[in-house]
Each structure stands twice: as structure tokens, then as C-alpha cells.
Amino acid sequence: MTIAVTGGTGFVGQALLDAAAAQGLAVRALARKPQGLREGVEWVAGDLGDTAALAALVNGAEAVIHVAGVTIAPDPAGFESGNVAGTLNLAEAALAAGVPRFVLVSSLSAREPELSAYGKSKARAEQIIKSSGLDWTIVRPPAVYGPRDRDMFELFRAASWGVVPVPASGRTSVLHAGDLALLLLALVTGGEAVTHRTFEPDDGRHRGWGHDELARAIGWSVGRRVRVIGLSRRTMEWAAKVDGLLRGALAKLTLDRAGYMAHPDWVVSPSARVPLEVWHPQVETREGLRATAVWYREMGWL
Fold first, then answer.
1. What is the pTM of this model?
2. Comparing C-alpha atoms, which of 94, 195, 86 is closest to residue 137?
3. At the topology level of CATH, where does 2-142+175-203+270-282 sit?
4. What is the mean pLDDT of each run of 10 residues along the chain (302 residues)?
5. Domain boundaries, the chain
């Protein structure tokens, strides 16, 4: 079996390539920049706007796992180009090549598309796949953490300083990248239990994590008793403007992100859980957080 993968150079994509290698699966992965040799991986140079590269990517593949996406953009057009047009291009390439399976990595933000341009673009990408005629499955991950991640890393770094800012209220689900990777591979074979369905996976914790609970768990993972500061939406928007001024295009907290992060409910829906016979989480979150903190330290990030 050959699996065509987008986003293979990113955080989740790297975890997916690791999992595929462990299962002896061949992967053909799209990459904008030249990549080093990696056993079991054939790199295809190009991006989601390159129709010739997409045709080469999916040619002869038994499944597509579409991980790539734009999470930070200066305006809605950036999300539209990466998440909507890119998904359409890939779906058309998969249809033309007769690929039998398509797994789309979306986001819980697609559940509330009015909150952000990012969420709206993810919801539009989902609609493209649903109406494509492909044998599809959509995965809406919650907050994903693990080695190589640079988004949740901001919370680990803050915890190492002893103060963790979080949204003032609300709850969220979380998921280790390794568990997400195993789910994506489990969905490749399809079947009635998963085809034409949208799943919201998590770590198995009932009702997710309160933002303050998660902040303290991250503090524990780095060996600190942290002070948790709850931020209102207005304060988060102000902080986003400051982050933009200080870090420019490298800013992690944007106004668009502040819009959906302030939403009080990012807990997965019980009705959208993955059937247990297909997949279940293996990483206990506190231990996963601690292992992630160890990786950050070994890499010199903390």
C-alpha cells in the first residue's frame, strides 16, 4: 500500500511518517523544500497549488491523508488559498487518479466557523470533501501536542517561567500527536464504521480539561508550580496585537486565533467519537506532557 500524504514536514505530519514507518507502510509525501532521505518515504516536490505535483503525489496511491493546512495567515485570503483552494486541488487530483480513500485532517474550529477565518476555511474544506464523490473520512482534532510542536510549546515555555496565561473560562480536549497519527492510519482502510463520517478524537478524558487544569498539568510536566492567569477575550485581543508588533509574521497569538480561543467549549462531542474497535487513545495526557517537556529540553527549546 502507498499512502499519499500532505503536510509531511510539519508537526503532525512527522508523527504520521514515524507511525507509517513503524507499520511498514510506503508513503509518498509532498514537500515545498528539498528533504533528506527517509526510509519508506518518497518525496514529491511541490505544494497544494501545483497541480502537476499533486498528480504525481496521488498517482497509484491507495489513499490520501491530507494533513497540510494554514493555521496562521495575515488575512482571510491566506486561509482561503491554503485550506480551501488547496483542498479542492488535491480532491480533484485524487478523483482523476481514482484514489479510493481520502482522509481529511480538519479542526474542531470548523464546528464554530463564525468565530474565525481559520475555522470558516476548515468548514469550507470539509464541504468540498463531502461533496467530492470521494470515499472520505474527516477528522477534527482538538488541541494537539507532542514533540516538534511549536504552538503548544508556548504554554510549556510560559510554565517554565512560572506563569501561564490561558482563556479566562472554558474547557478543551487535547490529543497527543502520536495518537492522532495512529488514528489517521487506522482510517485508511475505510469500511462502514468510518466512511463518510466526521470524527472528533481526544485523549479519552471525560469533558476534557479546564484551561486552568491543563495549565497546571503543563506546569507539573516542567517541574513548576505555576500561577495561572485567566485572560478575557478583550485582553487576548490586546495581547494578539502586541504579539503581532513584537514578532510580526512569527506571532503565535493572532486576532483570528484569539477569536476562537476565547470560545468556552472546545470539548469533543461524544456523538463524534471514533468507534473503539477502530481506534482508542494510548497516551495518558500527563505522561504525554511530561515526555514532551523532556523532548523540548533535549532539543534545547526549554
1. 0.95
2. 195
3. Rossmann fold (3.40.50)
4. 95 97 97 92 97 97 96 91 97 96 97 96 98 97 97 95 94 98 94 94 97 97 96 88 80 83 94 96 98 98 95
5. 2-142+175-203+270-282
